[in-house]
TrEMBL record:
The lineage of its organism: Bacteria, Pseudomonadati, Pseudomonadota, Alphaproteobacteria, Rhodobacterales. Belongs to the class-I aminoacyl-tRNA synthetase family. MetG type 1 subfamily. Is required not only for elongation of protein synthesis but also for the initiation of all mRNA translation through initiator tRNA(fMet) aminoacylation. GO terms for molecular function: methionine-tRNA ligase activity. Residues 421-571 form the Methionyl-tRNA synthetase anticodon-binding domain. Its EC number is 6.1.1.10. SUPFAM superfamilies: Anticodon-binding domain of a subclass of class I aminoacyl-tRNA synthetases, Methionyl-tRNA synthetase (MetRS), Zn-domain, Nucleotidylyl transferase. InterPro entries: Anticodon_Met, Met-tRNA_ligase_1, Met-tRNA_synth, Methionyl/Leucyl_tRNA_Synth, MetRS_core, MetRS_Zn, Rossmann-like_a/b/a_fold, tRNAsynth_Ia_anticodon-bd. This is Methionine--tRNA ligase. Keywords: Aminoacyl-tRNA synthetase, ATP-binding, Cytoplasm, Ligase, Metal-binding, Nucleotide-binding, Protein biosynthesis, Zinc. The keyword Nucleotide-binding applies. Residues 4-409 form the Methionyl/Leucyl tRNA synthetase domain. It catalyses: tRNA(Met) + L-methionine + ATP = L-methionyl-tRNA(Met) + AMP + diphosphate. Pfam families: Anticodon_3 (PF19303), tRNA-synt_1g (PF09334).
Amino acid sequence: MARHLITSAIPYINGVKHLGNLVGSQLPADLFARYQRARGHEVLFLCATDEHGTPAELAAAKAGKPVAEYCAEMHAVQARLAEGFRLSFDHFGRSSSPQNHALTQHFAGRLAEAGLIQEVVEQQVYSIRDGRFLPDRYIEGTCPNCGYDKARGDQCENCTKQLDPTDLIDPRSAISGATELEVRDTKHLYLRQSALKDQLDAWIDSKADWPVLTTSIAKKWLHDGEGLRDRGITRDLDWGIPVRKGDADWPGMEGKVFYVWFDAPIEYIACAGEWAEAQGLDAAAWERWWRTDKGADDVRYTQFMGKDNVPFHTLSFPTTLIGSGEPWKMVDHLKSFNYLNYDGGQFSTSQGRGIFMDQALELLPADYWRWWLLSHAPEKSDSEFTWENFQSAVNKDLADVLGNFISRITKFCRSKFGEAVPAGGQYGAAEAATIAEVEERVARYAELMDTMEVRKSAQELRAIWVCGNEYLQAVAPWSTFKTEPQQAAAQTRLGLNLAHLFAVLSAPFLPDASRTILQSLKIDTAAWPDDPSEFLSRLEAGHAFDVPDVLFAKVSDDDCAAWKAQFSGRRAD
RNA sequence: GGCGUUAUAGCUCAGUUGGUUAGAGCGAACGACUCAUAAUCGUUAGGUCGGUGGUUCAAGUCCACCUAACGCCA
């Protein structure tokens, strides 16, 4: 039995995530976790909300709530939606947890001891009325280049010119509109990533089996221009993890917090601590997943994320772990995804464009979305959601191929033999041929799932379902029954066994449908078919079953048109 | 401006280290079947593999340049 540590990039706390966010990390991570569990391996699957930073503060202010209260509420909302999509996290944590506070401060202390932290005094705009420093993009003013009056301190989005806040004419706070701004000195900490450049480079080079997308992004950051740059890891904010050196104060850094990108990946580890606490386990329980000196030697660690997160996971977070000088478990495989587009443009949280997780579940159950999203996962390049494509995939793959197979075999059996696996006859040449093909395909399916080839796995799974329809069509038990009922019984028996097989194989993609089929077949274990040939004889004569309700309803043209219209504009908050 | 990714049948995509007539699903046409959610199964049609040039006995598959889309960085 292998041990799999699996993490999904942690979604930002600010609002409900859209389907593009979902398919880029949480959903494929869940597919992999469910598959590895089904194969009998020990799995710890973790995710959390990323809660710190200015956007969270502003969203809380807009909602008229204290930021801690806002985050707690939004965490509950995201947790509920994750459950709705059947994301099987062992723990859904929070980057604001006490565990993450302690661990983040611990890492900062270790890095400082190792000489990997540099203190830098820089100048930043301070808003007197707001009583706070303003990040560049929260300063607005008139662009000196084009005259656009809502240019931001980092860039003018009208003429795209890069700006410094001090370039702006009539600068004002984007938060309050206040114009009483001044430039003040402020001290910040920088993580000296550049000091570990060669080590990181060699480490990335050793990962020959990572997706090109992952390594090419990491390589670009390592070698582009002047090479890997040091990054600021602190901010002048109230909401966040206070800057401390382990348990000790950090002179000169009072009132400052760590920058969100520094503490967010550390939450992967802290989350294991939260999990242990929630399970009533001791520290050793989570350390055996994360410390190679405490049992994590045989752990295989896989991370899932969208391409925008790759630099932090290939460079910054590894710098934190390596730089600590402690034996932390490093990632073994990093599966990254491109973006999912929506009907000719990008999904956008800020513009409310596309379909969001809560809206999706109001329209259809999780399995429908899981199937489309995973079978169209943007692995090789960006991919695109269209309603027509979605409708076709749901109707053909789920309703016609899988759903109808379950329906036709159970109903045929009920009408000819009753609601129990029929006795009589035996498997012959046609059965052997089908079993042989299924055996081959199951092996390929497992191989694709092992290597996280998401789209190809979906294709192979569908091909396995088709084997069921092909078989029934070829042997035609409805005809056989008229002349050789014994043989028809054997054919029906294999058909029902195929239904059992499909349920087990489909569980990682379609957990609800899988359960429904197993319940109808009155099977309470879901062991993996290590030997499909043996597996297809498990349902023996006399085993009772129920005919299930329709597994997947079709999406009508009217539904499709209505939804397309409903989602053509912006999401109303 | 620099870098990266992508460009294959009407649509969504596969195409290993270059090697016989470029594949799948959907859609289309035709046929078979009638157990089933008017479902299923089969057959056929459809592509000068973005463009130009090059390397090679041989290129969708390597090289150069060009074009387009998207992204990242500055």
